[in-house]
Write a structure and sequence with these properties.
The protein is an alpha/beta fold. The chain contains 6 helices and 7 strands.
């Protein structure tokens, strides 16, 4: 059975329900501005990229799964854990915004899934440190776990504003949280 966000995304022509998570975050925090260069890590199926282009920003996506050919989107097929993929990202230069909706393939083993989510979040941050412009914005999904506060505190050292939030479109049963960080300090 489809929830209201899945139905709405279909009706409105978005490739996935997760678009409403980014829409919520962007309305609340004004993360993406017109003309920004935005990197979306873990971009499959592409709904965030659709929204980025609708906001008249420049969209760049990275994922291990091929997305549909979207107009005005540059896409890299590859893993964020792969040095070759990271070099391709660096080739595009610096970004005002780095978004990470990276999520591990869940196994049902709560501890393992939380650890993998933390590793992906750390990798997203490592990439952001390489390509984010000074005073840039970073948004990262991470599962709530024992390492959540560790990650949050790390963000507070590197950004002037940091907030954790759970968008309405996140499923109630999900342990996902989003860290919104502004003002990257290089």
């Amino acid at each position: 059975m489809m929830d209201k966000f899945s139905l709405r995304s279909r009706q409105e022509g978005y490739l996935g329900r997760s678009v409403y998570k980014l829409l919520f975050l962007n309305r609340k925090y004004r993360i993406i501005k017109q003309g920004n260069k935005v990197l979306d890590l873990g971009c499959y199926p592409g709904s965030w990229l659709q929204l980025i282009t609708q906001l008249k920003a420049n969209a760049y996506g990275v994922d291990v799964r091929q997305i549909k050919n979207l107009p005005n989107v540059k896409f890299i097929l590859g893993s964020v854990m792969n040095e070759n993929t990271i070099n391709k990202i660096k080739f595009f230069g610096k970004f005002e915004v780095v978004l990470s909706d990276l999520s591990p393939k869940t196994t049902g083993d709560k501890m393992l899934d939380e650890e993998r989510s933390f590793e992906l979040s750390m990798q997203a941050f490592n990439i952001a440190k390489e390509v984010l412009k000074p005073k840039g914005n970073f948004v990262c999904k991470i599962f709530q776990s024992g390492k959540f506060n560790e990650f949050l505190n790390l963000m507070k050292k590197h950004f002037s504003f940091v907030k954790s939030t759970k968008p309405e479109a996140s499923k109630k049963s999900s342990k996902e949280m989003y860290i919104v960080a502004f003002g990257y300090k290089t």
